Amino acid sequence: MAAGLQVFGQPASTDVARVLTCLFEKNLEFELVRTDTFKKSHKLPEFIKLRDPTGQVTFKHGDKTIVDSRAICRYLCTQFPDDGYKKLYGTGSLERASIEQWLQAEAQSFDAPSSELVFHLAFAPHLKDVRPDEARVAEKEKKLHNMLAVYDDILSKNEYLAGDDFTLADLSYLPNSHYIVNSSDRGRKLFTARKHVARWYDKISTRDSWRQVIKMQREHPGSFE
């Protein structure tokens, strides 16, 4: 039974959303300590500033502190293997190796271009005196377009990225993908233009865990003033 799990951050953050989804999948009780780093008056707890000055996401379990969202998800799956959804990190070494390949692909190749699109398509329109950089948007859009073409081929053979079960490999893509899909028709078409990617995104984005995260984001919207 999990005890003393704390997440510091705001649900609107993609890193925090990733961790929250994992916690819901594992059916673990936790405390969300909302920190709003966009507000100039906000002061981060000292233990967060020492480890992660950006304060995007910090996780505490007893005296254990982790700041990388993917590392937090791995920790939750290995620390609580029998809680909630048991297939999230695979049930054997081969499955876990496949999941790790996709987690690395997301972190190393998908995250950067998708994060820029999230900023320019979803956040920039709501910021004062900030206009999307069309050249940067087009560049990152093309890179994501090419990546999703490869994913579509993989998903034509598997239900999910690492096989026929939903895993961390899929979960990790949810936060950025959600913002892009819901930002505009332009962003949505990146995921709906391909049959298998569209089917995959529809399945992962309608899971109860992600619905709970969306509910939290609506209840605790981020401040970009």
Automatic annotation (TrEMBL):
It is an enzyme of class 2 (transferase). One of its GO terms (molecular function) is glutathione transferase activity. One of its GO terms (cellular component) is cytoplasm. Pfam families: GST_C, GST_N. It catalyses: RX + glutathione = an S-substituted glutathione + a halide anion + H(+). Residues 3-84 form the GST N-terminal domain. Keywords: Transferase. It comes from the Eukaryota. Its EC number is 2.5.1.18. Residues 92-224 form the GST C-terminal domain. GO terms for biological process: glutathione metabolic process; response to herbicide. Belongs to the GST superfamily. Phi family. PANTHER family: GLUTATHIONE S-TRANSFERASE RHO, GLUTATHIONE TRANSFERASE. This is glutathione transferase. It comes from Miscanthus lutarioriparius. The lineage of its organism: Eukaryota, Viridiplantae, Streptophyta, Embryophyta, Tracheophyta.
